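job 3f2a | input accepted
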Amino acid sequence: MSHFYRLVVSCPDRVGIVARVSNFIAGHGGSITEASQHSDLAADRFFMRYEILADSIGMSLEALGEAFAPVAREFEMEWTLRDTRHKRRVVLMVSKESHCLVDLLYRWTAGELDCDIVGVISNHDDMRGMVEWHGIAYHHVPVTADGKREAFATVERLVEEAQADSIVLARYMQILPPALCQRYAGRVINIHHSFLPSFAGAKPYHQAYERGVKLIGATCHYVTDELDAGPIIEQDIHRVSHCHTPTALVRFGRDVEKTVLARGLGWHLEDRVLIHGNKTVVFA
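job 3f2a | predicted structure (284 res):
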């Protein structure tokens, strides 16, 4: 099957960027199969994502990167170039709620997620059988009030040993330490309900029911030091009414959470998410 080189660029906005990059690729015989651009006028910043048919360009990824480097310097680009044959290695983290984990494992086995899931880490042992049935290593790392430092040292070691590129918190109900967030900045993805900050703490859907909400939502975002405040990748909602019980609200919420997480992770794996400050550009 054909494979592609993905070129992702962020740089100060100016005239001629698209022409320069497109001419560079054409000059090497490259065929652009997908192109996305966005100019942020307020930030004076330009964003670009190109997919290039690898066989058309007749160069290795390394050679293409070396040839492109002078163009990148000319336009002060922050850029990445990736070969789609090299799948990202992903570690999933989960606690007791299984809906997001089950959905991601299904999509992975169905070929919907372009990655290798190289391990699952949990502070509970509940999901072991299901995960190991998929042929994935399962690591039970309990997190206690007095043992958090040791627990997350173990988590970090496991992620390192798995050579993971990305971490997905599939309803993992522990707060990652700042050092881990910083080390994997832009590579840790989380999902949470969108009732925050109004309905914080236990049973947010029951709190929302008592308040009579009409919309249930979920937010997929990158993890930062600030809890649930990282750059947003994707959000969605589900409309509810007075006739829905708290149990129904929880069920709707789970459906939205798993769908939003899967979309966000998929776009991340396909290099469609560009981070700028605390915002994202998503070429979905």
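job 3f2a | Residues 246-269 form the longest helix (24 residues).
job 3f2a | closed
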